[in-house]
Every structure is written in structure tokens, then in C-alpha cells.
Amino acid sequence: MSFLIDSSIMITSQILFFGFGWLFFMRQLFKDYEVRQYVVQVIFSVTFAFSCTMFELIIFEILGVLNSSSRYFHWKMNLCVILLILVFMVPFYIGYFIVSNIRLLHKQRLLFSCLLWLTFMYFFWKLGDPFPILSPKHGILSIEQLISRVGVIGVTLMALLSGFGAVNCPYTYMSYFLR
After folding, report:
1. Overall number of domains in the chain
2. Do 141 and 105 belong together in one domain?
3. Any idea where the Golgi pH regulator conserved domain is (predicted)?
4. Which long-range contacts (CB under 8 A, 24 or more apart) does 29-34 make?
5. What is the tens place of the pLDDT at every residue in 94-138?
6. 0.85 cut: is pTM over it?
7. In this structure, are 143 and 67 located in the same domain?
8. Does 53 reside within a domain?
9. 18 shares its domain with 60
């Protein structure tokens, strides 16, 4: 019975986070956005809802709010869904959107978007090869493999962006200080 109550709490919070993500997307991010694409709004809101739910599960772990087994189940489920969205859905939809804007490929856009997605998956997988994240006890598309690749690529990109910002900001505002 407590698993059912815990699941209803998690589903209710996911629905609330989804609604908040939808409102934030519509009112703040793209209030002047003329092209309304429903799939973009849904993907953003679902990603936002599951990210907030994972943060909520961390807080629940610290406070001991839900049952331990139900927290673990919802953590694994949220992790699988967010990996599915980040590694499979978002790159596929970006490729589909790119191919849809090319008039020559408009009739076969699903085929070419699948080819773009397979190219992304190849480079996504090859980018993680130099790092010691392979383990023989886990499968190729296991949660551990995907999390490690997303983590390595995410940390690398954040380091590049912060380094660029640390160099670009003083260079941009140097003219103000020279006066």
C-alpha cells in the first residue's frame, strides 16, 4: 500500500513539474516564438519534469520522506526515461527537424533523420572510447554506459564553455576598463 501512495505522490509531482515546465516554456522561453511546435514543447516539459523529479528524489532521500524501495524504483525509472530522452529522442528530433528544412530530402525525411541519428550515435559512442568507462559486466546499452558517456561529454562541454567564458568576458569588457 505504501508503494501505491509513494507512486501517486511521484506522479502528482511529475504532473505539476510538467505543467510548470510547459508554462515556463510558453511564457518565458518562447513568448515571441512564432513557430509553435508541439513536440518541442512536450520534449522540453517532459525533460524538465523528470529532472525536477530526480532532484525531488534526492531531497526525499535526505529527508527520508518516501519508502526506500519506492525511492529506488522511481530513481531507476526516472534515470531510464531521462536517458531515453537525452540520448535517443532529442538527437533524433533535432536530425528530423534539420532534414525537414531541406527541400531535397523532404520526401525521405524519416530515412535521412534515422541516418543522422545513427551518425550521432556512432560519434556519441566513439567519443567515450578513450575514457576508462567500459566494463565487461555491463552491456553495450546499459544505464552505466549511457550515464558515463553523458557525464564525460557533459563535463567536457561545461569545461570548454566555462573556459571560453573566462577568456571572452574580460576581452569583451576590456574597452570599458581602458577608458
Report:
1. 2
2. no
3. 142-178
4. none
5. 998 888 888 887 788 888 899 999 999 898 888 777 766 666 666
6. no
7. no
8. yes
9. yes
